[in-house]
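Input chain follows. Return structure tokens only.
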Amino acid sequence: MRSPAVIAVMLLSILCAQSARVYFGDQPASTAGSLMSIAADGTDQRTVTTLASGSDLRGMAYHRASGRIYFLDNGTAKKIYSILPDGTGQQEIAPLGSTFNADLEIDDASGKLYWADTFNGTIIRANFNGTSVETAVAVGTNEFTAPYFFFLDPAGGHIYWGVTSTGSQSSNFRRATFAGVIDPDFLITSPTRTRDIGIDPATGTAYWCDRQTGAIYKRLLSGGANQTVIGNLNAPHGIALDIEAEKIYWADTGARGGGPFNTSARRVARCNFDGTEYENLSTPTPTSEPWDLTLDMASPNYAEWRTRFFSPTTPAAAQTDDADGDGAVNLLEYALGTHPRKAASVPRIAAEGTRMRYTRRRASNLTYRVEVSTDLATWHYNNDGSGLIWVVQTSATPLNADLESVVVRGGSATTSATQLFFRVRVTSP
């Protein structure tokens, strides 16, 4: 039999519902801190929990698999806790050293929790339940080596950290392997006092906060000059990246009295990777001091995904709109994992020999149905009432936590076909 020619086309039908969340700590001076949350576009601000008097709310990390927020209280309690987003189910995870402890991160792949023991110059790790505590990296105790904020890059094999530093002299970021071996050749120098750092693995770019200059910078990990993403902030500290939406989120404590207060001071804010579309997200009190933040960017429906790419006032944000004019409506961009506001990011399905490949959401309320035809007039699919096998899925390879690449071929009902057309029908409730 001659292998059928394969051509792929797309279809969709339509939905509606809620929002991805940003979790952040608000720790005013001499007051109990609160763990807060907002939708990714700044709407629906809530208090998750308020800590006891004497708190010092520092690092935090969201663990998608358990749906829990881990946070570090460096105040009187000196403990790491976890809690559910609705404020219930708080658990004590691990006690902390009696001195100064800072940032906290999660390595989901290895099931490990990491935190910075700044006073002792180490980054510590343990199981999610607080057992098997050990030193991951010993980096030194002075202000130009002691770890403060840090970032885990399991795929790249490195832990990155910034140092505490003081004053307005230049500061730096270093890195080590997960085995604790410090890279002697890696250095990112920041103009003044480094704070949090995040890595975009797709482009090999580091983004970081510089407290004293009130700016967010970026630089290729391979080297080159620092570039200013956005400036005129007050005291940006925590940072988090939404890679798919190409957004930077940050927490600005607003605690630098001589700094500017006309942008993100005392707020959580975001902008695009290129510094455009700056938005203040959180609504602060006069004494708010957000220090760190973490993202839950799971988007099981269009409404949640929309908050990541569009502000509440952005035009052409409906499912049937085509925000970037690339010929694909926003719902199709959501379904196939492309950027709805970048015309170069176009949803595609591809013919690969006698097979067809497409990208789909790993967890959503969408329904994907692959259909086949030999003449573009009559279309068939599995469970269409014929009792025949029209399509066989041959693989589904995860691309990240949200997307997977799927390959299908014609089933036994297409054996005699000399040409075969595929299409994907996406349906939203």
